[in-house]
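Sequence decides. Consider this:

===
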Amino acid sequence: MSRKSPLGRIIFIALVTVSLGTLLSRAVLEIMRGNGAGTYENVYGMPIHWITVLTFSASLLAAALVALAIRWWQKRDDRTIDRLLRAKRK
């Protein structure tokens, strides 16, 4: 089993955050300037509209929030079951 470096993980998270933040801020600026239908090309040469970047980002944020709510709800049920089982043992 190989151990991953915590420094490498921090650097990776920082790079992803900076790159996504840059893309989102550029999309917001382009939309505020009235260029929401304008496009940029990704690595594969495919044109992507700036408004699509924000729509996709909002969808990902909504999905992440729903996933966190579901996770909290499941852990809440697990804690209740554990509490009931501990009370039954006593």
Notes: The chain has two helices and two strands. The longest strand covers residues 39-41.
